[in-house]
Structures are given as structure tokens and as C-alpha cells.
Amino acid sequence: MRKQLFLSIIDRLRKLQKNEQGLYVIAEEPNDDACAIKHFDLWNENLTNTHEDNPFYTPAVFIEFTPIPWQYQGTRVCDSVVTVLLHVVSRAIKPTAHGSMYQHEALEVFDLLDAINMCLDTHHTQGFGPLTNVLSETDTNWEELMHNIEHYTTHITNTGIKTSYQKITQPELKITIK
Questions:
Q1: Which residues have a Cβ under 8 Å from the Cβ of 17 and sit 6 or more positions away?
Q2: Cα angle at 43 between 40 and 45, to 5 degrees?
Q3: Which of 1, 26, 77, 106 has its CB 3.0 to 4.6 Å from that of 93, i.e. a possible disulfide?
């Protein structure tokens, strides 16, 4: 289920684009060239060694799964309310102070966060319910990169642990003795 949810979030966010007026829109189909987010990956403390490890384009979204408390419903079906963290990493543009000539451009990161929320709001697919944004953390100590975190919850039903049985019929055996 994590793989399905991970890929579904990426597929949905790949539709997020900026139009000619600079406004965020959700396209009918993904277009990687026009996508507002330039990199997607699983979260792995990616900001610890950004210069030494794999560099990435920004803005980037890293997806983290918090521990999942599964509840079994019987007959090999379980469900859970899952919390997914989106680590949204963007280049920091300074200064953000009121009256700064760069303030509007520096605060565009909040437009991106709003657009991500708009894009994912009530997004769902088979196996999990709508994504709901329950918490937003704003980076308060940035340098080159700004790292904001959006918390989403969804209800997942995992039927993948079901075992399917297939009846095997034995062929009829005929023995002829001559």
C-alpha cells in the first residue's frame, strides 16, 4: 500500500504546473517539462549532506511515511489511518522582510505550498481515502534551502495480504494394460 500511495501522490503532483500568468494550475495530464515540482523521492534525511550526496533540483518533494498502526479486520484484511509527510524543499530567496524588493519573490514558496494542498486536497484512489492536510510546519531556520513540511492523513485498507487459493484438479489417469 505504501508503494501505491507514494506513486499516486507523485502522479497527482506531476500535474501541478504554472500557467503563462504565473499561477498554479492542475493539468489534465502530467507533463514533466512543465511540472512545478522538479524532483520527487522518498525522504531519507536528504538535507543532511546535500553537497556530498545526490544533488537534486528544486523545488523538490520528498515523501515520508510515519509508523503505521495496522488494525486487522479479519479474513486477512487490515486498515489504518496513515500519516504522510511531504518535505517540500525550495531555494531560499532572501530577504523576506516587508518592503524588501525581493519580498514577493521570496514568499512565492507559500504559493507553492498552497498549490500542493489544492492539488492533493481530497485526492484518493483505490485502496485509500481522501488525503487531508492536518498540519503545516514552516521552516524557521533556513539558509540556502527552505524545508517546509506538510502532514497529510488518509485511511488505507490493505487487502493485499489476502491469500488467493486456486483449486488444482488432478488429471484423470487412464492406464491400459495389453
A1: 24, 25, 26, 27, 31, 34, 35, 36
A2: 130
A3: 106
Tally of domains in the chain: 1
Beta strands 60-65 and 71-74, pairing class: unpaired
Identify the burial level of 117 via C-beta atoms within 10 angstroms of its C-beta, where 0-12 means exposed, 13-18 middle and 19 or more buried: middle
Q: Is residue 90 part of a domain?
A: yes
Helices 2-13 & 108-120, crossing angle to 10 degrees?
Answer: 120
Instruction: Note whether residue 83 is domain-resident.
Output: yes
d(CA 174, CA 168): 19
Provide the whole-model pTM.
0.83
7 within a domain of the structure (yes/no) = yes
- Asked, for residue 10, whether it belongs to a domain, the answer is yes
Residue 132: name the closest of 116, 118, 153, 155 by CA: 153
> Which residue segment(s) compose the domain that 45 sits in?
2-158
CATH of the domain at 66: 3.30.2000.10
